[in-house]
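Fig. S4 source data, part A: sequence.
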Amino acid sequence: MTNLERAVEKMQDMQSIEDYLETILLLSKTSEKIKNVDIVNATGYSKPSISIAMKKLKDKNYINISNGEITLTKLGKEIATNVYSHHKTLYNWLISIGVSSENAEKDACKMEHNISNESFLAIKRSCEFCRCNSCNKGV
């Protein structure tokens, strides 16, 4: 495996981790008890895939699993909250510049993992000064 292939694999792993943590965060807003099946239903991935992913997240200290219930650790919640904040801001910014809701959702999901902090902060600042205020609406 080349260095480039390793770098791409590492980037894809981090994106996958962020997506799972964000999913757990969103599920925790509507349910006190989150189980693997809830993540299966939210993502559409298979039960075995979710089980493997949850083990990896637990091993990296992003989640706790007790009696089959999944909770975010402090680190996991910090990452999930950051990713979700990026997602909401990017989605709302895309909507404010005329992108359809469907495409804004898809694009925000891609952008939230790859945007530099400098670019994200510039977009966030532009949303703070947006005349139409649509950047500041919830997703």
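Fig. S4 source data, part B ends here. The chain has six helices and two strands.
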